[in-house]
Design brief:
The protein has a 9-stranded antiparallel sheet with strand order 2-1-9-8-7-6-5-4-3, with no helix packed on it. The protein is about 25% helix and about 45% strand. It has one domain. The protein is α+β, with helices and mostly antiparallel strands and about 190 residues long.
Length: about 190
């Protein structure tokens, strides 16, 4: 009886060890991405911008009222978080986006990811390349509900800056428009 329990215990330990090892391989954070890895791209840009530490000149327009300011101390994680929130790499969305690529002279110039489901927030993610490096990221987000319709256009150019345009059509109050043009200054 003691031998049988030792055999069962050894078998159980072997099974647990195998399960933990296989979980470590698949749970290593290196999951396969179905689309362009927007999160990783912007994490790299955040690190680059922190190292370069540029000032940001901002032109802000809210409902027609304009303001300009320059920021010297910039939290790039906060500034670019809006772009990261538009990442479309979720396992449930693997079949929810159509992919269209533009190749010129055997070089990838642009990739467009278009939502096939109108309930998805990110409707279009467009990545433009120049000499195999990301030159421009454009994102169109849209949300619809009975109380609010919102359209957001985001554009990021690594060496230049970014733009955010947001339009909200509200059923119970005045509509709202916001536009931010941020330019990196060295």
């Amino acid at each position: 009886m003691i031998r049988l329990s030792h055999v069962l215990l050894a078998g159980l330990l072997a099974l647990l060890t195998f399960h933990c090892q296989s979980s470590a391989v698949t749970g290593s954070g290196q999951e396969e991405k179905s689309f362009f890895d927007l999160r990783a791209f912007f994490e790299g840009e955040i690190a680059r911008l922190k190292a370069e530490n540029p000032k940001i000149k901002k032109e802000i327009e809210i409902n027609g009222k304009k303001e300009q300011k320059t920021q010297e101390e910039v939290d790039f994680e906060k500034e670019l978080a809006i772009f990261i929130r538009s990442d479309i790499n979720k396992p449930a969305w693997k079949d929810k986006y159509g992919v269209d690529s533009v190749v010129v002279s055997n070089e990838l110039v642009r990739v467009d990811y278009t939502a096939l489901d109108s309930t998805l927030k990110t409707r279009l993610l467009s990545i433009e390349f120049e000499e195999a490096a990301v030159n421009k990221v454009s994102i169109t987000n849209k949300t619809d509900s009975p109380l609010i319709q919102s359209k957001q256009q985001l554009t990021f150019e690594p060496k230049k800056g970014y733009q955010i345009a947001n339009q909200q059509d509200l059923s119970l109050s005045n509509d709202s428009q916001l536009r931010i043009v941020a330019t990196f200054e060295r």
